[in-house]
Amino acid sequence: MRKIDYHLHTRFSFDSEANPESYIQKAIKDGFDEICFTDHRDFDYPIDPFELDLSSYFPTMEALRDQYANQIKVKIGVEMGLDTDHIQEINDFVASAPFDFVIGSIHVIHHTEFYYGEYFKNKTKEEAHKEFFLETLKCVQTFDCFNILGHLDYIMRYGPYTDKSVDHQACQDIIDEILLTLIKKGKGIEVNTSGYKVNKTCGFPNFDIIKRYYELGGRIVTVGSDSHVVETVGSHVEDVLKAYQKIGFEDVTTFTKRKKDS
Ligand SMILES: [Zn+2]
Ligand SMILES: [Zn+2]
């Protein structure tokens, strides 16, 4: 399996100050075949401005990609916040630039976000999680502009609950519908290794869900560290690749201009 890190944030994201070149150098040192920058863009994120300045993003990343071309493959992508209140803007934004790869992530539901916690107000954990999965389903049904679904399960990092864990069984029918929709539309799923901080032995989502995606016929997987600092670039990628192999995947999928590399 090729060693990739397909979820990286740099100083082009509001919540990172990292220098993209340092990511490339670390990835080369650690023997990676390919990485993809996926800085944030969310429309209407409450409180924080998750904008992406494409006029400096592309020239900077393209120059780095070319500079290091004989040592590592570097792709230029985006983590697009999917939000059914902003369908047109999101589709237009993705179409407006030559992204290699688009992660579709749910960060905002009806103008409320998870990080500061507005979304969880007046909801039990069960209600909050169910709505998250239902909204994720709606997004994967509605949008076509993404390649893979980002960090399913990431909701479990937030919320005012002592036990934040997700009861997957209670939402299994919705999760199956999400996976089947992804498969039908030729979309993939990532394991986001930032989840190891919470889950210890797996990322977001866990390997049961990845196995389910495989059993239902899905073959498109990526892995990403969701790094916002250089130290975490590539973390737990090898653990995920081993698990992918055990499940039956032959390789990870990589992308150029939003199409699968053959
Ligand atoms: Zn995200
Ligand atoms: Zn991210």
From TrEMBL:
Molecular function terms, GO-annotated: histidinol-phosphatase activity
A single Gene Ontology CC term: cytoplasm
Catalytically driven reaction(s): L-histidinol phosphate + H2O = L-histidinol + phosphate
Pathway annotation: Amino-acid biosynthesis; L-histidine biosynthesis; L-histidine from 5-phospho-alpha-D-ribose 1-diphosphate: step 8/9
Broad EC category: hydrolase
Domain Polymerase/histidinol phosphatase N-terminal residues, every copy: 4-84
Pfam families: PHP
Biological process (GO), any one: L-histidine biosynthetic process
Enzyme Commission designation: 3.1.3.15
Entry-linked SMART domains: POLIIIAc (SM00481)
UniProt keyword terms in alphabetical order: Amino-acid biosynthesis, Histidine biosynthesis, Hydrolase
The organism's place on the tree of life at top rank: Bacteria
InterPro entries listed in its UniProt record: Histidinol_P_phosphatase_HisJ, PHP_dom, Pol/His_phosphatase_N, Pol/histidinol_Pase-like
Membrane-spanning segments: none
Family: Belongs to the PHP hydrolase family. HisK subfamily.
Protein name, as recorded: Histidinol-phosphatase
